[in-house]
Design brief:
alpha/beta; TIM Barrel; Lyase, Ornithine Decarboxylase, Chain A, domain 1; 2 domains; six-stranded mixed beta sheet; 11 strands; globular
Length: 266
């Protein structure tokens, strides 16, 4: 807190900087209000000190609000979460005789995340024997798809978990343990680490992976010369192409090869 106070004071003094307020960021994928309340309490402490020497235009309590990637995730409704934080700040400031600050939040993932669904086409299905923690042996289906870590780097970067469903047809087949993997020839190229799909999942099936609207397109790359996929907006039975998928021609469009100026060079 003392370091933050000193930095804020220094920002006020520098002619080429404008002090616009306080900001905190406590993490990502947060499902409970307690961390935000604690952060707000600490910011109000700093807010009170800074008000003694000048204005504090904004108090930004950041983001990190979690969303459901799998059935195991149980996020709070943001419509219930934000009022609790605002009420806490109001109580903390009024009890000290301070003006209520202008509050800001950053609900990024919670807006765009659930809005995105990635569709993959199944290429190959391969049964693999795996040893379970109890030393028993089970069969896991490795389901390869036409995308992977170039369109969703999060599982490879930090072990993010997703779930998948077959959306191109209805199946009554018994569920089978699967791992959905990509086409990038890497051991970490995993789309869905562990989930259950109908046991008759087959080449040509379309899989949907939900909650990919945040940190997928923005982190997408051309890893291993794989083009980024199209982005299509869908609304009430209509659709519109927002971003064209990359073709091989797009990937090599900037290649120039060896020109005349380098002929004869070794």
């Amino acid at each position: 807190p003392s370091e933050a106070f000193d930095l804020a004071q220094r920002a006020r003094e520098l002619p080429n900087l404008e002090f616009v307020g306080l900001h905190s960021h406590i993490g990502s994928q947060i499902f409970a209000v307690e961390g935000f309340v604690e952060s707000a309490t600490r910011l109000v402490d700093l807010y009170a000190r800074l008000l003694e020497t000048g204005e504090v235009p904004t108090m930004n309590l950041g983001g990190g609000f979690g969303i459901a990637y799998t059935e195991a995730d149980d996020p709070m409704d943001i419509a219930e979460l934000i009022p609790q934080i605002v009420d806490h700040v109001a109580h903390e400031t009024s009890s000290r005789g301070l003006p209520m600050p202008h509050l800001a939040f950053e609900p990024g993932r919670i807006i765009s995340g659930p809005a995105g669904i990635t569709l993959y086409r199944v290429g190959v299905v391969k049964p693999v024997a795996v040893t379970l923690p109890d030393s028993s042996v089970a069969t896991r289906l490795y389901v390869s798809v036409d995308g992977g870590m170039s369109d969703n780097a999060r599982p490879a970067l930090y072990g993010a978990h997703y779930s998948a469903r077959i959306v191109s047809r209805v199946s009554d087949a018994p569920p089978a343990l699967v791992r959905v993997v990509g086409k990038h020839c890497e051991s970490g190229d995993i789309v869905v680490d562990a989930d259950f799909l109908p046991g008759d999942v087959a080449p040509g099936d379309i899989l949907a992976v939900a909650a990919t609207g945040a940190y997928c397109y923005s982190l997408a790359s051309n890893y291993n010369a794989v083009g980024r996929p199209s982005v299509v907006a869908v609304h009430q039975g209509t659709h519109e192409l927002m971003v064209e998928g990359e073709t091989v021609a797009n990937l090599i469009a900037r290649d120039r090869g060896l020109g005349s100026t380098t002929r004869g060079a070794h």
